[in-house]
Amino acid sequence: MAKIKTLRSASDKSISHRAAMLSSIAKHEIIIRNYLFAEDTVNTIRALENLGVNIEIRNSDIIVNPVGKYSFKEPQDILDMGNSGTGIRLLSGLLSGFEFLSILKGDDSLKSRPMMRIIEPLSKMGAKIMYRQGGYAPLVIYGKSNLNGIRYESKIASAQVKSAILFAGLYSDGDVCVKEPIKSRNHTENMFRYLGIDIEENNTEVCLGKNREIYGDCEINVPADISSSAFFVILSILSDDVEIVLKDVCLNETRSGILHILSQCGANYEIDNKRVENNELVGDLIVKHTKELKPFVIDKDILPSLIDEIPILSILGIFCDGVSIIKDASELRKKESDRIKAICSNLSAVGVKTEEFEDGFKIYGKPNHTIRKTKINTYNDHRIAMSFTVLSAAKGVDLALSENQSIKTSYPGFFDHLNYIIS
Question: Which ranges of the chain have pLDDT less than 50?
Answer without folding.
Answer: none
